[in-house]
Structure prediction request, 335 residues.
Amino acid sequence: MYMFKYVSKRLGLMLFTFFIIFTMCFTLIKLLPIPTNVLPGQDPEVVYATLEGRGWITNVQEGKNGLYEYDRVPILIQYGNYIKRIVTQGDFGIATTYGEYVNMPVWEVFVSHLPPTILINIYSTLIGVPIGLALGILAALKKNKWQDQVINIFIILLISLPGIVLALMLQYVFCFKLGWFPLTMSTSNDYFTWEVFHSMIPAVFALCLGSIAGYARYTRAELSEVLTGEFMLLARTKGLTKRQAIYRHAMRNSMVVIFPSILSEFVSVLSGSLIIERMFAINGVGRLYLNSINFQDYDFFMLLSGFYTLVSLTAGIVIDISYGFIDPRIRMGAK
Prediction:
């Protein structure tokens, strides 16, 4: 009952926060000049009629020297029309200035670019979590020994180097010099073939190397503290072997902190994939987001901003709820 009330309250706060952020993004983006560039081969009347139909401008008239004059629709009215279209029609808008996707529904383009982004993040998590946990556990069990020192040096190096630098090093060494991998991801849509997976490997490791260091650091710090707890001594005196005590008690208690850190690292990786996708020419959501800013395509920007905002807010709820599942003694929402 406590958990249900807590989750309901958090969901309500999440939606309220999302609405505030979404409104701020819409207001700020609409304060910028409206992109009314007519591309070669386009009919100006059609372009301005499209903008008027989307509720951005009104009273369109052809002025002197073939230039069009118009009035801007108030931002609040634009926002009301925008939300109404999303709720009643599922219409997130159409591309108006994004060259290759002009006049295409932004939702369809977004869905078509989602698989590569999801896959590189899932692959980086599947690779990073086991390696990071294993290094952290080894460092904690071998604390202050040479194994611990080597792992700490590895962690410090990965944490200190920015993700962009790691990505450039991977591209230079493994793609350019050694030629083991292609410089960019394959353009094939068969995402579960060896060719596509092979081309994803440099981007996946560019994303997960920093996460491996984070997982190892969290695991080492938390497990080292748990291993020195008095309850571990009690477990040994009850007849448990060192391995049994670590597996049954130490690991379970340390996971209360480690598991939520895994979720938070996944969110940070998803945000960091914006740059990595651009560097490795991955045709995913991150690249689409950056290009939508360059092209000043407002509907694309709003949809993708809402997507990343919702992912971050949802992760916060999942992290909090996970405490109760990992350790039943923690009752979220209880007084």
Notes: DSSP finds eleven helices and two strands in the chain. Strands lie at 57-62, 68-72. The chain has a mean pLDDT of 76.
